[in-house]
UniProtKB/TrEMBL annotation:
Lineage: Eukaryota, Metazoa, Chordata, Craniata, Vertebrata
Keyword hit for RNA-binding: yes
Family as reported in the entry's similarity comment: Belongs to the RENT3 family.
TM annotation in the entry: none
Presence of keyword Ribosomal protein: no
Domain UPF3: 34-142
InterPro entries, A to Z: Nucleotide-bd_a/b_plait_sf (IPR012677), RBD_domain_sf (IPR035979), Upf3 (IPR039722), UPF3_dom (IPR005120), UPF3B_RRM-like (IPR034979)
Location in or out of the cell: Cytoplasm; Nucleus
Stored Pfam families: Smg4_UPF3 (PF03467)
One BP term from GO: positive regulation of translation
Protein known as: UPF3 domain-containing protein
Region annotated Disordered, chain positions: 1-34
GO terms, molecular function: mRNA binding
Gene: UPF3B
């Protein structure tokens, strides 16, 4: 039986690209940075940053710790959360094993099992210094000039 040339697909050609030094594959691996920032979710709403740091002791080397208290606009889901950036990636596994599912108890005795996972956004916030407003108080200076002349 003859094949109809119009209805047949052309044969796919497989092309392999070989690299002599393997440079391209190494560069793509270098671009991906290691994930070192984690988030602890479902913390008790009444928890403070100081209480959290006390319960997380001993904490491995950390270069960023940000705590967010509960948001009352999200009424049924009133939980606090914390973001931690570790210096060593090996510490993340130990921290997760210790605190994923760890039950935090608030001041009323309610239990809150925490969830530890990688933060979806891996960058850390930078501390910015507030600049003094150059035009602050200029109206008062103009009024003084008008009254004196």
């Amino acid at each position: 039986m003859k094949e109809d040339k119009e209805n047949t697909r052309p044969k796919e050609k497989r092309v392999e690209i070989k690299y002599e030094d393997g440079e391209k594959t190494e560069k793509s691996k270098e671009k991906k940075e290691a994930m070192t920032k984690i988030v602890i979710r479902r913390l008790p709403p009444s928890l403070t940053k100081e209480e959290l740091e006390e319960q997380l002791q001993p904490l491995p080397e950390v270069d960023y710790l940000e705590f967010f208290s509960n948001d009352t606009s999200l009424y049924p889901h009133l939980f606090a959360r914390a973001y931690i950036n570790f210096k060593n990636q090996e510490d993340i596994v130990l921290f997760r094993d210790r605190f994923d599912g760890y039950v935090f108890i608030d001041n009323r005795g309610q239990e809150y099992p925490a969830i530890v996972e990688f933060a979806p956004f891996q960058k850390t916030a930078k501390k910015r210094s507030k600049k003094k407003d150059a035009k602050c108080g200029t109206i008062q200076k103009k009024q003084l000039l008008c009254w004196t002349s």
